[in-house]
Specification:
Oligomer: heterodimer
Largest sheet of chain A: 6 strands, mixed
Number of strands of chain B: 11
Radius of gyration of chain B: 13 Å
Number of helices of chain A: 0
Order of helices and strands of chain A: EEEEEEEEEEEE
Shape of chain B: globular
Strand content of chain B: over 45%
């Protein structure tokens, strides 16, 4: 069935390091793809999205490109900060009504 | 414009009891979805309401039920609580539209079943 799979963590980085979190999808069609972030004790916040192949979503220094050839939507940031420590979720919307989430990747950035 | 608000933020219930969780959608949004997020996992879709009707349902038993009111606020009801129902329950609201329409999440209700 339609689903997303993301790299599981935890991931621990030093400040200013490069971050990549892998996300791939399985779908019969072409989903809209999202990255959400969850800070400790909080709900989910949309980080970025892409709705069709080759779209690039970007926000707060994070980027992800919708790659149809590799069915991927990897999240990247060139220089992380301590404030980027959070849980990151890849999600796909395969039809009109629900988001399907990956298991989440916990990122910890050390000063 | 107010965001999505959920109440209560935390509660503890005993196995077998019933619970009602509440969600006020963001202004202008007519669609509300509920998700269950178990500890260390991604959110799982429970159901969605659009204009007071259930519009889609995930793989949850009938003891999970919901309502949407004319002002688009919503309730999630869970009967006969089980220990595995302990989770963070998230409400998300959105405006009707294409699949890429953004969903805005509330802070969640942390339910503990003992």
């Amino acid at each position: 069935g339609d689903s997303v799979t993301q790299m599981e963590g935890p991931v621990t980085l030093s400040e200013e390091a490069f971050l990549t979190i892998n996300c791939t999808y399985t779908a019969t069609g072409y989903p809209s793809l999202f990255w959400y972030v969850q800070y400790p004790g909080e709900g989910l916040q949309l980080l970025l999205k892409a709705t069709k192949a080759d779209d690039k979503g970007s926000n707060k220094g994070f980027e992800a490109t919708y790659r149809k050839e590799t069915t991927s939507f990897h999240l990247e940031k060139g220089s992380v900060q301590v404030s980027d420590s959070a849980v990151y979720f890849c999600a796909g919307k395969f039809n009109d009504y629900k988001l399907s989430f990956g298991a989440g990747t916990t990122v910890t950035v050390r000063a | 414009e107010t965001g999505v608000t959920q109440s209560p933020t935390h509660l503890i219930k005993t196995r077998g009891q019933q619970v009602t969780l509440r969600c006020s959608s963001q202004s202008g949004h007519n669609t509300v979805s509920w998700y269950q997020q178990a500890l260390g996992q991604g959110p799982q879709f429970i159901f969605q309401y659009y204009r007071e009707e259930e519009n889609g349902r995930g793989n949850f038993p009938p003891r999970f039920s919901g309502l949407q009111f004319p002002n688009y606020s919503s309730e999630l009801n869970v009967n006969a609580l089980e220990l595995d129902d302990s989770a963070l329950y998230l409400c998300a609201s959105s405006a009707s539209g294409p699949p890429n329409t953004e969903a805005f999440f509330g802070q969640g209700t942390r339910l503990t079943v003992v």
